[in-house]
Write the structure tokens for this entry.
Amino acid sequence: MLDYPGRAQSRLTEYVQPFGEQGESGIAPARFLAIHDRTQTPPAAARIGRWRTEMTPTDRHNYEEISGP
């Protein structure tokens, strides 16, 4: 689990069809891969807490409605 960047590329190549529930339009493979591109590198300390400045208040509210504060 801690060595995920070493296996990410091989796992990401498994996504060759739209990602999502059967019968829905889903996320196109190219978009899915772009979203998950950072899984190929270890976590970067400089990215910690970016949600505080980059997440809109509306997005934060919507997220917290599901996840809790």
